[in-house]
Amino acid sequence: MPAEEHFEPEAVQRVIRRAMQNDTPDTIHRDDLIAAAREAGIDDDAITRAIDEESAAIQQDRRQRERRQRVIAALSCQARRYALILGALFFVDLFSPGPWWVQWPALGMAIALAVRAGKVW
């Protein structure tokens, strides 16, 4: 290996990413990460800011994922309620005289559920 070999920042990122994929524990302690950056010539303030920004991004992603899970659970609960209500309405319609009417509340509930699902996805 040449003694004066230099790498561009993008190449450095690729090399470090490749090395971490090949041989890295599941997690790295914050102090170890700062020490490794210091050895690589990165300023302590710069690496600390980067770590804090990444931690904030991870927390934001976690909050978004949890919120999405709650919304999906609420949507699922609403769908079950609609199914129960429509089942009851079907039997009422089945035993009542006159034309079928249960399809109209079913259509309204389906539209409401689709609108709510559209907000999730």
Unreliable runs, pLDDT <50, ≥5 residues? none
Helix coverage percent of residues?
Answer: over 70%
The description of the largest β-sheet is: none
Radius of gyration computed on alpha carbons: 28 Å
Number of strands: 0
Q: Give the helices and strands as they follow along the chain.
A: HHHH
Proportion of residues in β-strands: under 5%
Derived structural class: mainly alpha
Number of helices: 4
Distance between the termini: 51 Å
What would the principal axes of the Cα set say about the shape? Answer: rod-shaped
Which whole number gives the mean pLDDT?
Answer: 88
Put the structure in a nutshell:
It contains four helices and no strands. The chain is mainly alpha-helical and 121 residues long. The radius of gyration is 28 Å and the shape is rod-shaped.
Q: Mind explaining what this structure looks like?
A:
- The two termini are about 50 Å apart.
- This protein is mostly helical.
- It has helices at about 10-20, 30-40, 45-95, 105-120.
Entry keywords:
121 residues, mainly alpha, rod-shaped, 4 helices, 77% helix
Topology:
Layout: H1 9-22, H2 30-39, H3 44-94, H4 103-120
Helix pairs in contact: 2-3, 3-4
